[in-house]
């Protein structure tokens, strides 16, 4: 028999354990310094039904430009891959999948970037003949876009790197990693080879593309006036960004007029901008409008962050920097979730569900889907449109 007393007791017990589960997971997250740490602490995803993301139906998005007949359309876009010579195998793997799932139909050109010249061996294997019919270009990153700037106090930077190594922060001791994060945050879109383009798709070595994409995501961006597209979002490690939000708030105070009134602050802050909830779009995948980064607001924003030195005194990632930029300077409905793109970058993946899974003939396991895991931020994105 469930007497009233027992009933009250039972409800209390449930509430207490719920509270415990929630605070336990948040606390773990706050302490995490690398993805592998998190991976072993997955609490299990609730069986939430995915939000009804619509796949574009118009044929306008499905007819790649036929150069011979002039039929169809194409956006002014490039696929951008920042890589080292040593990333060759991973690059080939990513690129082959992207070609098979999408680009062999759509023929977007590739731009490879590196701070040292690509070796002949790299170019031969990735070259047009074997992997793609599209144009492939190789760009050298100018030194001033890559190396630690002079205004950084090296003694202070070294000290902070050493501390991060002690604290087990992933890539905490690495200068090249910091160069890469700063380059992706503020320079890739200024590269000579990217100047002619308006849209880009960022691809990394060793990622997976699970589904056939039979429509052109760049045309979605263009026709629907989107600024930023993602497939996975999650929390950032606190240890890499101790003063980032403080800096962002200073910027907003200095330049309130640069902030878009219809912004996506709700995605990055749970208290109207007082604190950062650490949500960010996982920037190893991005489909974006380069105008977002080239515009006055983001340019000033990046310069402001760069001046503060957090790319080196801390380990600010391009993911939170881009995400905060997109959230503040684009309208919230200009940020697009590419639900139909099945995608994996270790150790997380977005696997399209239901109709979308079938339509794309996806080869990922539908139950292996990051969207509504407890450390995903997709629910915060959804909330903005409720
Ligand atoms: N040219 C060049 N590219 C780099 C360098 N470091 C990283 N990259 C590239 O920058 C991108 C991000 O680097 P990753 O090492 O994948 O960083 P991550 O995704 O945060 O970490 P992982 O979990 O290890 O993949 C990838 O496209 C790399 O190929 C570098 O020193 N030089
Ligand atoms: C492109 O157009 C030409 C000329 O109309 C046609 O012969 C060819 O089959 C078309 N190619 C494709 C892939 O549709
Ligand atoms: Mg990576």
UniProtKB/TrEMBL annotation:
Signal peptide: 1-23
Keyword Oxidoreductase: no
Key words of the record: Signal, Transferase
Biological process according to GO: cell wall mannoprotein biosynthetic process; protein N-linked glycosylation
InterPro entries: Glyco_trans_15, Nucleotide-diphossugar_trans
Catalytic residues identified in the record: 286
Gene3D superfamilies xrefs: Spore Coat Polysaccharide Biosynthesis Protein SpsA, Chain A
GO cellular component: Golgi apparatus; membrane
Keyword set includes Membrane: no
Superkingdom: Eukaryota
GO molecular function list: alpha-1,2-mannosyltransferase activity
Family named by the database record: Belongs to the glycosyltransferase 15 family.
Name by which UniProt lists this protein: Glycosyltransferase family 15 protein
Protein source organism: Hypholoma sublateritium (strain FD-334 SS-4)
